[in-house]
Amino acid sequence: MAGILAWAADVVGGAGASDDEADDARDAASAAMTPEQRLRAAELDARAASMRRAIQDLRLRVPPPHVAQRLPHLHAHSLASSAALALQLNAHSSTKEQAQQREITLQEENAAYEKALSDCRWKIQERQMETDQLQSDLKIDSASIGLTMKDECAERGGRRNTMGLKVQAGGWEERNLREMEVAEHNLKAQLEDALKEQEATQHKVSTTASETAENALLEAESLINLKSKDLEEKKRVLELLDNKVQTLEKEWSVVEEESLKNPTPEKVDSGPGNLNPAAVKLDSVPANQNPAAAELDSVLASLNPAMVEAQAEILITDVHAKEKELERLNHLHRNVCSSANEIRAPRSRFSRGLLSGPEDYCDAKAGRKLYQPGLRTEGQKRLMILRSTIVLYVLLLHIVVFIKISV
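-> structure tokens emitted (407 positions)
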């Protein structure tokens, strides 16, 4: 009887004793037992070992309590999707910065174009002033030449009249008169040639001045039209980019709110012991082998004014796809949580059913792993009650055995 009591005390106080002490106590108890008691104790030990193995098999069959340990591929996929969304946010911010830089450069180009247009207008005004001055100079020269030629003709006519009177006096005066007529005819021809040359030069200057002015005006108008069209196109592109950036920012804020409302397993696992090897493997991938980083580099390299609109549309479609993926993951997370609750319910019924039979023997080492000093949970209380009932049941069995042996 002393050996049975020692063995029962060893089973009850097994949470604080080591394996060597338990073996020593078991040896001491077996030394105080009779051979029949030893056989019965060995049979009970074998039964306890089989029950331990069955309990360990059942524990191995039960899935782990956390979703990151049960479904590592979904956890890794959620981490990858969150990383991709972060990369897209960085791409959106870089796109916005580039749009702002492009706006600044366009403003500078507009200022340069306006300055060039003002210079062209100033040159056109100078050319018009030069043509007006040339025309006025030509008019003054033609008037002065006409007056001088008329004066000379009048003087020659007066001389001819006076000399005509003298010619009558002598034959030599006739020869002088002929010479004077020839000279007058030559002077008239020279005057006509000078007038024709003056008209030709005036017409030529006026035509060249008008042609140059018209060409300059046409060039200036064409340049103004081209620059205005270019500015309008660039303004439209900037407005489209601003609208796309605003829509992307709104959609990203909506995605962030939804992610805060439905946290991913990465946010739930905040403890140091809940590290996932899939997440470590994702973080350990270098930048040149990470497809998300390669996609970000390609997006940054291909950002130019001609492809910004297409890139923004692609980003919008990607954000919609990620939102759908997040909704699907949240739905799967809720399904997994409900299935885990359904699995825990039969497990608790099974643990409550262990209290009703002689096969429900639990190992003291398993309870020792769940023990925390200064903190008792419902599971530990149930385990203590289960252990005490098993000890009482074993004591009753031994008492019945002793009664049968004594009878």
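The radius of gyration is 56 Å.
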